[in-house]
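Continuing the batch. This is chain 6 of the set; chains 1 through 5 are on the previous pages. Same settings as before, nothing changed between runs. Recording input and output for traceability.
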Amino acid sequence: MQTIEEIEKIIEENMAVMLYFSAPTCNVCHALKPKLLDAITTNFKEFKITSIDVSIEQETAAHFNVFAIPTLLIFLDGREFIRKSRHMSVDEVVREIERPYNIMIS
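Output for chain 6:
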């Protein structure tokens, strides 16, 4: 478990950050997470990935305005770049990250 301050520091100190909000009772979350993690780590080496269990960390979820799960937040250069909730495809997420990410690391 990480504090809001620790998560904010991760976002500030890393070029590319993914926050993944889920809960143990969410079947979609569990099906999506391994596929998403694999796609992100395979395609984008610089990403720092943090998982947040909203059943334990309600305050953190509220801080980031996350009220549905699964929710994915992508931060590039300290700014929120992508926010996806519930229905998302791994390919769609990868496509949306690809161009700006490649520009940042080149």
